[in-house]
Write a structure and sequence with these properties.
Number of strands: 0
Order of helices and strands: HHHHHH
Radius of gyration: 50 Å
Shape: elongated
Structural class: mainly alpha
Number of helices: 6
Strand content: under 5%
Largest sheet: none
Helix content: 55-70%
Length: about 140
């Protein structure tokens, strides 16, 4: 650490202390009550305020507060237009569109395996028919020569 850094740190600390002292002084000035103004106010005006009680004393009746006025509430639901009458039956959404969907799901693997076997079998049959047709064509061409 150099001498310049120590000096700048000390200057920053001094400036911070001064700011804190100024803040403390300002807070104390705000918190101290003025005794001259408060004494006059307490003598003339009662400190009680009546919201739900009507006092019998005339001086205290002046301290009665008016009841609060509630703002008028507008119900957004009542103001909204009524929903349309085209309602679907809710039980239609519960049932599946196709009644056998669960059976298809359970049997799908077996169906796929059978489909592959069927494709292989048809391919073999087509190959055999092709061979037979070629043999018959070869036999015809040989007999014609």
């Amino acid at each position: 650490m150099g001498i310049e850094e120590e000096d700048s740190i000390e200057q920053a600390a001094v400036a911070r202390r001064e700011r804190l002292n100024a803040l403390k002084a300002a807070r104390q000035l705000l918190n101290t009550p003025d005794t001259t103004d408060n004494a006059d106010d307490n003598d003339n005006n009662p400190s009680m305020k009546f919201r739900n009680y009507v006092p019998q004393d005339k001086e205290l009746q002046e301290a009665k507060l008016a009841p609060p006025v509630l703002p008028k509430f507008e119900d957004p639901i009542a103001a909204a237009p009524p929903p349309s009458e085209n309602k679907e039956d809710p039980f239609l959404n519960i049932a599946p569109k196709k009644p056998n969907w669960d059976l298809r799901r359970d049997v799908q693997k077996k169906l796929d395996k059978l489909e592959r076997r069927f494709q292989k079998a048809t391919y073999k049959l087509m190959e055999e028919q092709e061979r037979e047709s070629q043999l018959s064509e070869d036999g015809r061409t040989a007999s014609e020569d």
